[in-house]
Amino acid sequence: MLAYFVDNFDPFIFRLWDNVGPRWYGFAYVLAFISAYFIVRLLSKRGYCDLQPERVSDFITWTALFGVLLGGRIGYVLFYKPEMLREPLSILRVWEGGMASHGGMIGILALSFYYARRHKLSWTNLGDALVVAAPIGLFFGRCANFINGELYGRATNASWAMQFPKELIENKVLGDHAVAVAQNLDSSLIAPEQIIEAARHHSQLNDTLRGILTPRHPSQLYEAFFEGIVLFAILWFVRTQMRQPNGVLTGLFFIFYAVFRIICENFREPDASLVGAFTRGQFFSFFLIAIGIAFVVVAKMRPTYPKHTAPSS
């Protein structure tokens, strides 16, 4: 029998006390925004982005706050957890996780449109710069999901399968069984959350979880690779090695992201009710493909180009 890896990392980088301290999830967003700043600034210096280098920090700050964070959180609530509207204060607890990439993309579109109009810049040119940087942010976000042990994959017997203790919280029958077993080791463990926390420092309890938890696909890592690394490589190559009009990169981002998301969702445990035969992520991704195609078609029909149109040396 394989000894599967149990994904039970501490979500805190370090704790100041109890449940207070910086979390890996928040740190992932910090890394994403820093990466976006340097990538967009580099594209600006090379002439691929019409935004002046000294204004990149201002643009990224607005995009981070009102595009990614606000759009992502609102998208999560509306698309996946509408019941949170009954407790409005829960919407503000972003440090607990819960962001929708589709909502973040809509937020970025809206913010970049507003910023471009206000500063008399090409909206599609700004968008093309942002989407080159976006996959790096997606990569860090999926890595944070992995560390948090959330958005895990479907059951599998693959040799690289992993086990995710948060399954105990989301599956009541399994959680109750884990409590009954864990109390043979420590009678103070009366809830799945306590078991998960204790198992990080209790090797025997951790080994016990291996016999209870379901082996699953580490789908967060699949998404980090395809939606992050592969997508960035594609967009960086097209941006720096091919002469394309403004808007094409934005369209390609939506198309490739949606295709990768649809594929990876086949390995991910649905975290919301299905829409017909599709997961929520797959369903919304079909709209992204349509949006992406529209961007490419319009860009080709009425082409405008960034300052620098030759391949980089």
Find the structural class using helix and strand composition: mainly alpha
Low-pLDDT residue spans: none
User: Level of helix content?
Assistant: 55-70%
Major sheet attributes: 2 strands, parallel
User: Roughly how many Å is the radius of gyration?
Assistant: 21 Å
Shape category: elongated
Strand-residue fraction? under 5%
Q: Helix-strand pattern, N to C?
A: EHHHHHEHHHHHHH
Number of DSSP helical runs:
12
Largest sheet: spatial strand order: 1-2
Q: Give the total of beta strands.
A: 2
Mean pLDDT: 91
Number of domains: 2
State the end-to-end distance: 53 Å
Write out key terms for the chains shown.
single chain, 313 residues, mainly alpha, 2 domains, two-stranded parallel sheet, 12 helices, 60% helix, elongated
Describe it.
- The chain is an all-alpha fold and 313 residues long.
- The chain has two domains: 20-156 and 217-301, no CATH class; 164-210, no CATH class.
- It has helices at residues 24-45, 56-79, 88-91, 101-119, 123-148, 167-170, 172-182, 192-199, 203-210, 219-241, 248-264, 280-301; strands at 5-6, 162-163.
- It has a two-stranded parallel ribbon.
- Helix 1 packs across helix 2 and helix 11 packs antiparallel against helix 12 (280-301).
- The longest helix has 26 residues, at 123-148.
- It is elongated and about 70 Å long.
- The protein starts with a strand and ends in a 12-residue tail after the last helix.
